Amino acid sequence: MVERMKREWFGNVRADILSGIVVALALIPEAIAFSIIAGVDPMVGLYASFCIAVIIAFVGGRPGMISAATGAMALVLAPLVRDYGLQYMLAATVLTGVIQIIFGMCKIANLMKFIPRAVMIGFVNALAILIFMAQVPHFIGISGLTYVFVGITLLIVYVVPRFFKAIPAPLIAILALTAAAIFGGLDLRTVGDMGNISQTLPSFLLPDVPFNLDTLKIIFPFSVALAIVGLLESLLTSSIVDDMTDTPSEKNREARGQGIANVATGFFGGMAGCAMIGQSVINVKSGGRGRLSTFVAGMFLMFLIVVLGDLVVQIPMPVLVGIMIMVSIGTFDWSSFTYLRKAPRGDALVMLTTVIIVVMTHDLSKGVIAGVLLSAVFFVAKISKIKVQKSTEGTVPIYRVEGQLFFASTKSFVDTFDFAAEKEEIIIDFSNAHIWDDSAVGAIDKVVMKYQDNETRVTIKGLNPSSKKLVDRLGVHHDPKAKAAAH
Amino acid sequence: MSNILLAVDGSDNSYRAAEECIRYAACMEASRVQLIYVADFAKAKNEVLHAGGRDQLEAARRKRLAPVEALLQEKQIPYEVHILHGDPAPVIVEFANELKPDLVVVGSRGLNSLQEMVLGSVSHKVVKRVQAPVLVVK
């Protein structure tokens, strides 16, 4: 135990400290931009990032993963902030954490396997599209100079890393272009001009909301959505870090850790967050492996917040827009176009449905739920195809059943039999079938008894042991007095 | 005993590199091939997203090596598989410089100069930084 803690914290000290510093530098532009998406003061996102990163370093289940204020969570929070204000957002953040802690204790990570790939791909694509759409009002049709600045930002973030990697390119873009805008006296919208931003500093206290049922009614749906979205992105990110570092992680501990971090963040005046794919990849690429890297990222971010202070409000909006376009391009799964062509039709449709529902409702959790339900329906439809082949063995007709017999396939099973046609005796062979539930046994009863009504003797054979057990326990067709209507 | 390091990414040109590697292996005495595949950090997100889980992801990677492994088995050349994670070029270089093989064989994607500027040539970096003879197969 102590041995493991030592390894997770101090197994990679030098590289962890350096990568933590790189991540802190890379976090600043994103934390500010995500705050703008949520409609809160940039300090709210920066405090949240500090707070979540430091706490998750201790309680997370995936060493080396970076959690902070994220776009996914900001997008879910935006309508809450718009309609009810900052304090309700803080309350929702605390409640999100509580829900995530409960989820974690219920071992929710084990349920991840029920979320199909198609839904996860749809999720990241929808996230990318929403982040991009949130930028549109900040750069379309404002001024020629805005377009120029967005363009220069994109140029910097994509070209500079080819030659110079020590400082994250988005930060270089912010520093260079903010300086250019200030000293050139350029007429650009800045972070400080965003009218909807409350300038109150975060309170380090209980959220200032009435503690009653009405408040709960407002924040609960948001908190559930946040909990789902946060865990989905966190668990996906932890799988990515697992793969990159070729080490396992504790997914349920991570879920609980995300909850603890969000509860604390809400009380410290920050917005809800989760793990970040982009930043975690930066951390691992920069050599970060241990908990120390996450901790240093958070602490150094706090240091930078103190140093940068009021400069934040002078950052030109087009620079943040450019950085968010980069984040959106990086988040989008570009192989989805091949996926749409090559994946089974049902999967492709699930992916598209997830994306479309998210883009229409602006709610990531709704798209995920719809995607999961739709793929469940497709799965049932696919597996409920049952084949019955008729042949004759000597003079006796034999029906060979192939497939899964359960509530969704009973009707097509019963419909394949022609009760009037047969005379003496028939055989139904279940060697290639499985009987799953009460409805299935009922359907067999129905078939047998209908034949019996027509004076045809039915022999059932080939049931596998578990199917036979079920038929023996629930079936009534061997009882001559029974009626099919019993089911 | 001689050691040949063969870096493979599952592409056509890495298969051609494997064919060349086998020709050299036949000429060298008691040669052994160290087959190395680097799971690229840049593709990690995409691969995890499109794989069903850890096991499936591993299987998918092994499948990319399958044609080359079949080729080595057919010619009865002993080999070992190493699946590593990271940026392909530095990982291959580090592995090679530690192993000190008699020969390193890599495929070349044949990028034009613009692609090379943007994507970075793995074979170029390997030739430059590996302290062993390197065979680049076009």
UniProtKB/TrEMBL annotation, chain A:
Q: Which superkingdom does the taxonomy of this entry point to?
A: Bacteria
Its localization reads: Membrane
Name of the protein in question: Sulfate permease, SulP family
Alphabetized UniProt keyword annotations: Membrane, Transmembrane, Transmembrane helix
Question: Which residues belong to any copy of the STAS domain?
Answer: 386-487
TM ranges:
43-60, 88-106, 118-134, 140-160, 167-186, 218-238, 259-282, 294-312, 319-337, 349-381
Q: Which InterPro entries match?
A: Membrane-Transporter-like, S04_transporter_CS, SLC26A/SulP_dom, STAS_dom, STAS_dom_sf
GO MF annotations in UniProt: secondary active sulfate transmembrane transporter activity
For membrane topology, the record states: Multi-pass membrane protein
Q: Which PANTHER family match?
A: SULFATE TRANSPORTER YBAR-RELATED
UniProtKB/TrEMBL annotation, chain B:
Q: Which organism is it from?
A: Paenibacillus aquistagni
InterPro entries listed in its UniProt record = Rossmann-like_a/b/a_fold (IPR014729), Universal_stress_UspA (IPR006015), UspA (IPR006016)
This protein's name: Nucleotide-binding universal stress protein, UspA family
* UniProt similarity note: Belongs to the universal stress protein A family.
Source organism superkingdom: Bacteria
In this protein, which residues make up the domain named UspA? Answer: 2-138
